[in-house]
């Protein structure tokens, strides 16, 4: 019997059983939850504003100062940078910020149409899918 307990497969089975039965109950998970942290939020804001300002400046410069030379390659290149390339990071970062903010219940409840859904979600006796996800985090 002692050889069986010391075999690697038996140890693995014992450890697995221990982890399964020692799992945290669903009611206790709420204390373990913490909202996502805002990493590099300030840097993202600064980078977004800088690229947006650069895109607006380049496009404005082409339309005002190089208006008569729109056929030149350099003018088209600067216009392409200002209209197509520089706005891309702004779109990506604003989408990321929007998705991150949408994870918060306050974001959903800020719209008056969603108030009834948020109330149902926060109701502990509700059996709706959103309420079940909210209760189980």
Description:
It is a single chain. This protein is an all-alpha fold. Among the domains are: 43-102; 104-137, no CATH class. The protein has nine helices and no strands. It has helices spanning 2-5, 8-21, 29-32, 41-64, 73-85, 87-101, 105-109, 115-122, 129-136. It starts with a helix and ends with a helix.
Describe what is shown at a glance:
The chain is mainly α and 137 residues long. Helices cover 69% and strands 0% of the residues. Among the domains are: 60 residues; 34 residues, no CATH class.
Please outline the helices and strands.
Layout: H1 2-5, H2 8-21, H3 29-32, H4 41-64, H5 73-85, H6 87-101, H7 105-109, H8 115-122, H9 129-136
Helix pairs in contact: 4-5, 4-6
Describe the sheet with the most strands.
none
Helix content: 55-70%
- Uncertain runs are 26-31
- Which secondary-structure class do the elements indicate? mainly alpha
Q: Could you give the order of the helices and strands?
A: HHHHHHHHH
Which strand-content bin applies to the residues?
under 5%
- Helix tally? 9
């Amino acid at each position: 019997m002692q050889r069986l307990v010391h075999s690697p497969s038996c140890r693995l089975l014992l450890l697995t059983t221990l982890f399964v039965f020692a799992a945290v109950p669903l009611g206790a998970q709420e204390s373990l939850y913490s909202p996502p942290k805002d990493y590099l939020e300030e840097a993202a804001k600064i980078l977004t504003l800088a690229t947006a300002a650069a895109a607006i400046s380049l496009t404005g410069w082409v339309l005002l100062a190089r208006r008569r030379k729109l056929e030149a390659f350099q003018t088209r290149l600067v216009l392409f940078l200002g209209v197509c390339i520089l706005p891309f990071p702004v779109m990506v970062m604003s989408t990321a910020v929007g998705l991150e903010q949408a994870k918060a219940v306050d974001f959903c409840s800020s719209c008056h149409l969603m108030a009834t859904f948020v109330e149902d979600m926060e109701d502990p006796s509700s059996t709706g899918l959103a309420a079940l996800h909210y209760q189980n985090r």
